[in-house]
Amino acid sequence: MVDSKQQWKAWLYLSPAVVLLLIFTVWPIYNTIKMSLLEGFTTMGSVNGVQYQFGFGNFTRVLQYPGFITCLKNTVLLCVLTVPISTFLALLIAVCLNAIRPLQRLLQTIFFLPYVTNSIAIGMVFAAMFNMIMGGGARPDSVGIINNVLEALGLNYINWLNYGSSYWANIAVMVVYIVWNALPFKILILLGGLQSVNKQYYDAAKVDGTSKVRTFTRITVPLLSPMIAYVVITGFIGGFKEYSSIVGIFGESMGPVGNPYSLDTMVGFIYRAIGNQEGTASAAALILFAIIFVVTMINLAVSKKNTHY
């Protein structure tokens, strides 16, 4: 404990962080709540002296927006598909990395590279990989590496991203990209948890002749349950804020040519509204916050029953 006579020193040391939090966190949150409650608020109108009435019209406008259901559906669908898949794959890769001694650090570095790479650049690479441009003939003029692999396996080309592509083909590409991009952070967390597990549990399992599958399900998973709960919760939080990955592949239209905004998300709607409808954007941000909060509380309640500390 800090001596009460010396507490001013502690506050002095904390003051830079407190000031930054007040300016860049507390103040923006306050402004977001205020703008969401001002009917039809816009920054230009406020600068020009327009007086706005308090009300819930901005929230009504968001809920009545024709594309709101599409934004919400895409956001929830991407979360539901990517979080379980990425968590399961990250757990398997972490277990394999933990069992490898030679080149372990090199492999950890390789797996972590996507986490420090620009998401827009990665999206452009994935767009090229799944590309297929049709010409005048039966054979496409240009195909990406994925369709080349399909051709080598004797399968037909798939129009993943371009004009005329199906919604589920677009979703498949996004799932592959988001899972690949989410793996590094989850692998790092789970691998750190694995390396802190007491080896005596595994030694006892070997003595008893326990199979590797049973060791994994009865020892590894329960002992890693706090880390698994953490990556699942943070995965859902990040998934509900999905935006840059879709822009990286499809551009600002957030969908293939001929079907714009078919993959629009809640964050995409917020970004578009920021330019000229700040009140609506603030209301949408608070609605998204409420959804994330509810999902996080559900995840915490479920994890409490299945987490072993």
Tell me what you see in this structure.
With 309 residues, the chain is mainly alpha-helical. The chain has a domain at 68-274: MetI-like fold (Orthogonal Bundle), CATH 1.10.3720. Helices cover 69% and strands 1% of the residues. It has 14 helices and two strands, in the order ααααααββαααααααα. It has helices at residues 7-36, 43-47, 57-64, 68-99, 104-112, 119-129, 145-152, 167-195, 200-207, 212-223, 225-240, 244-250, 266-274, 278-306; strands at residues 132-133, 142-143. A hairpin with an 8-residue loop joins strand 1 and strand 2 (142-143). It is globular, with a radius of gyration of 24 Å.
For this entry, give a set of tags:
309 residues, mainly alpha, MetI-like fold, two-stranded antiparallel ribbon
Helical coverage, percent range = 55-70%
The description of the largest β-sheet is: 2 strands, antiparallel
The total count of strands amounts to 2
Pattern of helices and strands: HHHHHHEEHHHHHHHH
* Tertiary shape: globular
Computed over alpha carbons, the radius of gyration is 24 Å
The tally of helices reads: 14
- The CATH architecture designation of the domain at 68-274 is Orthogonal Bundle
What fraction strand? under 5%
Main-sheet strand order equals 1-2
Instruction: Assign the CATH topology of the domain at 68-274.
Output: MetI-like fold
Spans where pLDDT lies below 50 across 5 or more residues: none
